[in-house]
Amino acid sequence: MAKHQLHPENWVDQHADYLFNYAVGRVSDAEIAKDLVQETFMAGLNSSKNFKGDAAERTWLVSILKRKVIDHYRKINSKKGKAEVRMSYSSDTDAEGDWLEQQVADPFSKDGDNVMENEELGMAIQDCMSKLPEKQALVFKMKTIQDMSTEDVCNELGINPSNLWVMIHRARTALMGCLNENWF
Amino acid sequence: MKITCEEASGICDKSQYKEAGWWEIFKLRLHLLYCKTCKKYSKKNTELSSLCDRAGLTVLTKEEKEKMKKDLEKNL
Predict the structure, then answer these.
(1) Which of A18, A75, A101, A147: CA 20 to 30 A from B15?
(2) How far is CA B14 from the centre of its chain?
(3) Is A168 exposed, middle or buried (0-12, 13-18, 19+ CB in 10 A)?
(4) Which tens digit of pLDDT belongs to each residue from A56-112?
(5) How far is CA A54 from CA A5, A19, A149, B36, B55, in A?
(6) pLDDT of residue A39
(7) Number of domains chain B contains
């Protein structure tokens, strides 16, 4: 198998959105996530000589980003001092007399699963979008994720509406096929 | 009143972005009554929209990406 190579000049176009979504899922703050992605690219550049070509470029960048996320939590945690969990009997006067046991997370709640599943779904969609031709992916993202009007997209990209809808149609058909096995 | 499958899928795509007119929607609905292929496409298309919604995707803006590129280039 051919060894993978790094192409830092394409990193932003090819991986920035993917890494950004990954980071947002973990730090829940767009600004911080953006900084982490930027730091990841810088760290990637600095340690590019350590890249052995065993993994795909994106996998390698994600592994750096993971470290950055951990570092981020270490940093904010040290600022605040040691993590501390306080639990009062009941802060809510309405719930007075309720048992402490009733305040813990509901073990049968599906919320956590949903969050995780949606994150996985997001990454799957990102993966599929990366397989689209660049311009199709761009149009699809602008319409679907950024919710831009057809007129604005056309103006920005210098295309006409029928071009736009053809690209949207192709992108959607390709995405349906790509997500098919796992998500439909 | 009758439309081709191509028109139908076009309207269906537009309606995913709430950009289809009521008359177009009506013609699409009519088409879907007898066209199984388009009915299937329409169902999957709607599912794709809800998947995209559910995933809560975000993207960096063009400006943010440009800035990132510049910062990166400085260090290349």
Answers:
(1) A18
(2) 7
(3) buried
(4) 899 999 999 999 999 998 888 776 556 566 655 555 555 555 666 666 666 677 777
(5) 9, 20, 42, 46, 30
(6) 95
(7) 1
- What's the longest Cα–Cα distance across chain B? 61
Confidence at residue A85, expressed as pLDDT on a 0 to 100 scale:
60
Q: Which of B17, B56, B64 sits opposite A143 (nearest CB)?
A: B17
**CB distance A37–B45 less than 8 Å?**
no
Subunit contact A118:B58, Cβ cutoff 8 A = no
**Per residue in A18-65, pLDDT tens?**
999 999 988 888 899 999 999 999 999 998 888 888 888 999 999 999
Residue with tokens 């997500």: A179
Rounded CA-CA distance B58/A144 in Å is 10
Residue A153 to residue A130: CA distance in whole angstroms: 20
Give residue A87's pLDDT. 59
What pLDDT score does B37 carry? 95
- Asked if the model's pLDDT at residue A134 lies above 70, the reply is yes
Answer yes or no: do B59 and A20 touch at CB < 8 A: yes
Interface of B with A (CB under 8 A): 9-10, 13-14, 16-17, 19, 44-45, 47-49, 51-52, 54-61, 64-65, 68-69, 71-73, 75-76
State the Cα–Cα distance between residues A17 and A125, nearest whole angstrom.
Answer: 11
CA nearest to A164, candidates A145, A146, A142, A147: A142
Q: Do B59 and A17 touch (CB under 8 A)?
A: yes
DSSP label of A81: -
